[in-house]
Write a structure and sequence with these properties.
homodimer, mainly alpha, 7% strand, DNA-binding
DNA sequence: CCCATCTACGACCACATTGGTCTTGCTTCT
DNA sequence: AGAAGCAAGACCAATGTGGTCGTAGATGGG
């Protein structure tokens, strides 16, 4: 037991030493958002779909309540959640958990998905038109998009540790390079 | 048709108003690195594989020479390039263009690839162990990794605009969710 | 043998984004 | 009426990114 703590401390030091440069990572906000949605999906299964307050969800995961509140507001604006103000108010999924894709959520929170700074909304390149790699990377971009679109909130809820049926149900996603 | 233009104009306004928040994007440095590698690969086809100086490459693409220099140094340290100091020196690919994957390059420049802040080097979650979505996202992470690993510098060199054979040669990459 | 050229490396800086807090106001249930 | 809860905006510290500068060391040519 003491050993476990020693290791954890060690890792914490490691992480502080090298703050873990983040390549291709999605923001913590998106993480929080996905976690909250998963929580809401789970809750709606157990009891009657009563709205959950931002504070409750925040406490369940030990994330800053005010921050989560803002995230949930964003998701509400995006039509992914429905909110209800007042006492006993809170948030609930606007649709079924299997109707909400991870891509939708991430896009709502973090903005449009572009793997390279080369690709903008209208597909032009800001590098004086001299960028030559945008076409290949665009394909990667689309593939990742497809990948994330295929995952729903329902897929996040998995009974065991070793992700079983739900994953296979989605089957294989073939992606053309 | 007029409608199309109206939409495009609308999007342009949107983009200026919101400077295009970058979700899941790789850094400009990685972009530059890939471009430089592509350039080197092309040059080694045309003439004898003479080394190209950082300045030459930088000029070809209008990117800051000093910045590119540092990127190329990084790639050299990673064993992707070989350098030769002195007059007529420069950089050359350490291996064949088809032996260098985009993943390798990006990883060398931007650091380890983790889609979520949940997943760290040692696979633990920094969210007090309360994070429940890391397992599903880990799969997405691996898929993207696989995707990028399947693309080589050689694939970036494509004759026409409409990416042809090389892409198909790679075939379809099947990714299990 | 010396100089121009080129890599190597670290310090430094401006700027944008991220994560997070605070305040204020509005809605709704009891 | 008042507490519980959402909505929204201003604000702030920390960090990462893109980029510059200066210096030191290697190397080939005249």
């Amino acid at each position: 037991m003491a050993l476990v703590h020693a290791f954890q401390a060690y890792f914490r030091i490691l992480e502080q030493a090298r703050p873990l440069k983040p390549m291709l990572r999605l923001t913590k906000k998106a993480d929080y958002g996905l976690m909250a949605l998963k929580y809401l999906a789970e809750q709606s299964l157990v009891r009657a779909p009563a709205a959950q307050s931002a504070k409750d969800i925040a406490e369940a995961y030990h994330i800053p309540p005010q921050l989560l509140a803002k995230i949930l507001q964003t998701l509400t604006r995006a039509g992914i959640l429905v909110s209800h103000a007042g006492a006993n108010g809170g948030y609930a999924l606007a649709r079924g958990a299997s109707e909400i894709s991870a891509f939708e959520v991430i896009r709502a929170i973090d903005g449009p998905l572009f793997i390279t700074s080369c690709i903008t909304i209208h597909g032009t390149c800001d590098l004086h038109g001299t960028c030559t790699i945008k076409e290949p990377l665009r394909k990667v971009n689309d593939s990742i998009k497809e990948l994330l679109s295929a995952i729903t909130i329902a897929d996040l809820i998995e009974p065991g540790e070793s992700t079983p049926a739900a994953a296979l149900a989605g089957g294989l996603v073939s992606i053309a390079l």
